[in-house]
Amino acid sequence: MQKLREHIEERWSSQMPFVAYHLPNATDVRCFFPKDSELHYLQRYDEAGFIFSSFEPSSQPIVFPEVTSKVLKFKLIDYEVESKSKFRIKENLNEKEGYLKLLTDAIDTIKADELIKIVVSRKISAEYDLQNPAQLLLELIQFYPEAFTYVWFHPDVGLWAGASPEFLAKTYRTQFKTMALAGTKRAGEDRDWTEKELDEQQIVTDEIVNGLKKHSKTLEVSERKTDKAGGLLHLRTDITATLESAKLGDILKELHPTPAVCGLPKEKAYKYLQANENYDRRFYTGYFGELNMPHHNQRSSRTRNQENQAYKSIVRASNLYVNLRCMNYEDGKINIYVGGGITKDSIPEEEWTETVNKSRTMLKVL
Ligand SMILES: C=C(O[C@H]1C=CC=C(C(=O)O)[C@@H]1O)C(=O)O
Predict the structure, then answer these.
(1) 192 Cα–ligand 1 center, Å
(2) φ, ψ for residue 78, nearest 5 deg
(3) I need a surface site. Which of 118, 124, 126, 141 has the fewest CB within 10 A?
(4) Rg (alpha carbons) of the chain, rounded to whole number
(5) How far is the C-alpha of 16 from the C-alpha of 88, rounded, in Å?
(6) What are phi and psi of 300, to 5 degrees?
């Protein structure tokens, strides 16, 4: 772990780009250390590297290319970081009033039959002196081992960090997996899921299935289950497809942004957010992760012979997550990004509380 800390500290103090991340329940921490500090944008989805994409559907992701980066793995040995978090952000009444107004307007717009669902969000800002991104990452991993935790930095963009519970795309050969995640309650809350929550999650499942249908030979939709994400619970459905021949880039264009982060109908909801949300989401609710990275695959022992090595194949796989439960750090300030799905049955005060609960994921590690 010491080596990992040293690498990150060195990149951070010299203001060189890096990403260090932990895949759900992985035994290692992976890093990309680009050799230059130029900002590279992805040209084609068959390139390999770590991508970081904004919410804006037509934007090109930033890429730390595999070929021009040092790609390292560090074993995650038992460690405990002392969490000294006493950081609190005082509730700002003006902010609350503004957000309640936005929520009321979104509900009215839906009731006027203009939209079915809108995922509205806000940014919580506070002064903060971020000394040590390595410490931040290790705390994220310690508290949220089942999430995709990361710290990403580029001098032209700033530092982003998060603990995402939602994957957008996992590919392996022709297999494609995604999930529909929506509906939120606190982990201790002893109540059934409401109609509103079941409804907002079903909208996500249906829209993903519709989008994938035309690209897939087979399509499997799991039972809906409850999934834990830090101190919160969500409704989750897994969707698995065997792809016809569609390219990952086309499928991402089809899916992103899903109604888990934007709304339905998609274009109308996006326009609504552009006109009413009153801040720039940037990379919040975008997607990020490994694109076409080598995945070492050992064939089963029955097919092995003495020339064992010949049976080891390297397949390239992608592992992309939605940038949720995240923050960025810039000019001595942190911004935490939180939102929630609004339908005709939403209650503004409850939606406000949901964003307060979601902000605790990042507050815990500050
Ligand atoms: C938009 C967010 O969460 C999404 C994912 C899971 C549950 C959600 C919800 O219950 O509203 C949101 O759709 C966020 O965490 O900022």
Answers:
(1) 18
(2) -50, 130
(3) 126
(4) 21
(5) 30
(6) -65, 155
CATH number for the domain spanning 84: value is 3.60.120.10
C-alpha closest to that of 289 among 171, 203, 210: 171
211 CA → ligand 1 middle, Å: 20
Q: How far apart are CA 173 and CA 315, in angstroms?
A: 7
Contacts of 143 (CB under 8 A, 6+ apart): 83, 163, 230, 364, 365
The DSSP secondary structure of 114-169, one letter per residue, reads S-SEEEEEEEEEEE-----HHHHHHHHHHH-TTSEEEEEEETTTEEEEEEE--EEE
The residue type found at 45 is Y
Nearest to 327 by CA among 68, 136, 82: 136
First to last CA, the chain: 20
Domain count along the chain: 1
User: Is the residue at 76 inside a domain?
Assistant: yes
Tokens of 314: 């390297």
Atom of ligand 1 nearest to the CA of 260: 13
Residue 303 domain-assigned (yes or no): no
| Identity at 63, one-letter amino acid code | V
What ipTM was reported for this prediction?
0.99
The pick from 261, 284, 322, 353 for probing ligand 1's pocket by mutation, whose C-beta has the most ligand atoms within 8 angstroms, reads 261
Residue 338 Cβ inside 6 Å of ligand 1? The answer reads yes
What is the C-alpha separation between 312 and 187, in angstroms, rounded?
Answer: 42
List, run by run, the mean pLDDT of 10-residue segments along the chain (366 residues): 93 97 96 97 96 97 98 87 78 94 98 94 96 95 97 98 98 95 95 96 98 95 97 98 88 97 98 97 98 77 52 84 97 96 97 97 95
Q: What is the pTM of this model?
A: 0.94
For residue 336 and ligand 1, the question of a CB distance below 6 A is answered with no
What spacing in Å lies between the alpha carbon of 340 and ligand 1's midpoint?
Answer: 5
Q: Is the CB of 341 under 6 A from ligand 1?
A: yes
The C-alpha atoms of residue 335 and residue 124 are separated, in whole angstroms, by 5
Give domain status of residue 92, yes or no. Answer: yes
Tokens for 73? 């793995």
Residue 223 maps to a domain: yes
